[in-house]
Write a structure and sequence with these properties.
- By secondary structure, the protein is an alpha+beta fold.
- It is built from 6 helices and 10 strands.
- The chain folds into 3 domains: about 70 residues, Dna Ligase, domain 1, CATH 3.30.1490.20; about 80 residues, ATP-grasp fold, B domain (D-amino Acid Aminotransferase, Chain A, domain 1, 2-Layer Sandwich); about 55 residues, no CATH class.
- Strands 9-8-5-6-7-10 form a 6-stranded antiparallel β-sheet, sandwiched between helices.
- The radius of gyration is 20 Å and the shape is globular.
Length: about 250
C-alpha cells in the first residue's frame, strides 16, 4: 500500500530530525483535527517551527476536547488528489465512483470544490480505484463500511493519503446521489446493521424510483445515466457534464 514517507513525533528536536530525513518541502498535519485545520506545506525549518507552534497554540479540537500533542509530517506528493467512494458488505467492496477536488489557500490545503465523477482518463480512474481497493483490503475494511479513500495521482503512480471508514464530507454524498441516484447515507445504515446495501443505481436526480413517464422526460436531458448495480464505473450529469459541489 504505497503512501507518502511520514513520521509522527511530539518533541521539536525529533520533528526537525524527521523533517530532514523526509526532505523538504513537506506537509505538517495534526493527528486529531478535521477539515484540513492547521495542515500546512513547509519548505524549511523556520516554516516548520511556525507550523508546529501554531498547532501548539490550539490545545483543543473543534469539539472542545483536549488534543494529542503529536504532529504528523508527510512527504509532499505531486499531482492531483481524488477520492474513491466505496461500499463494503460481506467481503465485497463496491466502487461507487471517483471524486476530484479543487484545492486553494496555499500554504494551507483548503478544499474549494468537488466534481463527481472525476475528469480522469480511464487508466487514471482505474489506478485510483485499484489503489483504494488494495488499501481497504489491507486494512480489513471489507464488511459493513462506507469509505472515502483519498488518493494522490503522482508522477510515480497513485499514493494513498487517507482511508476514512465513513461517508465523504463536504456534500460529496449529495453529488453522488444527484448523479447516480445512490444514497450513500442509506447504504451506510444498511451495512452498519448487517444488511445488504440498497445502493442500486436509479435515474440520476431521482431520490426515489420515478414514474416511467417522468423518466422519459428526464432522460431527454441526460446524455448518459448510471448502470445497474452497486458500483457504476462512470456516470455523468445533465448534458454529459460532471457535477460540481462546493467544499
Amino acid at each position: 500500500m504505497a503512501g507518502p514517507r511520514f513520521a509522527v513525533h511530539e518533541e521539536a528536536a525529533e520533528l526537525v530530525r524527521a523533517a530532514r530525513e523526509i526532505g523538504y518541502p513537506l506537509v505538517v498535519k495534526p493527528v486529531d483535527l478535521c477539515a484540513g485545520m492547521f495542515v500546512r506545506r513547509v519548505d524549511d525549518e523556520e516554516q516548520l517551527a511556525a507550523a508546529v507552534g501554531a498547532l501548539a497554540g490550539f490545545p483543543v479540537n473543534a469539539r472542545g476536547q483536549r488534543r494529542v500533542p503529536a504532529v504528523l509530517l508527510e512527504e509532499l506528493l505531486d499531482g492531483p488528489e481524488v477520492s474513491v467512494e466505496t461500499v463494503s458488505h460481506a467481503g465485497a467492496v463496491h466502487v461507487i465512483g471517483v471524486t476530484d477536488k479543487s484545492v486553494g489557500g496555499a500554504p494551507a490545503f483548503i478544499e474549494t470544490g468537488h466534481m463527481f465523477p472525476a475528469a480522469l482518463s480511464a487508466a487514471d480512474a482505474d489506478a485510483a480505484e485499484q489503489t483504494a481497493l488494495g488499501a481497504l483490503k489491507a486494512l480489513g475494511l471489507t464488511d459493513g463500511v462506507v469509505a472515502h479513500t483519498e488518493i494522490k495521482l503522482t508522477s510515480a503512480g497513485p499514493r494513498v493519503v487517507e482511508v476514512n471508514p465513513r461517508p465523504a464530507g463536504n456534500r460529496i454524498t449529495e453529488l453522488v446521489r444527484h448523479v447516480t441516484g445512490i444514497d450513500l447515507a442509506a447504504a451506510f445504515v444498511d451495512v452498519s446493521l448487517g444488511r445488504a446495501p440498497t445502493c442500486g443505481a436509479r435515474t440520476p436526480g431521482c431520490a426515489a424510483p420515478p414514474s416511467a413517464s417522468w423518466c422519459r422526460r428526464r432522460r431527454a436531458r441526460w446524455r448518459r445515466w448510471t448502470v445497474s448495480g452497486c458500483g457504476p464505473r462512470r456516470t455523468y450529469s445533465r448534458r454529459g457534464s460532471p457535477s460540481r459541489g462546493g467544499g
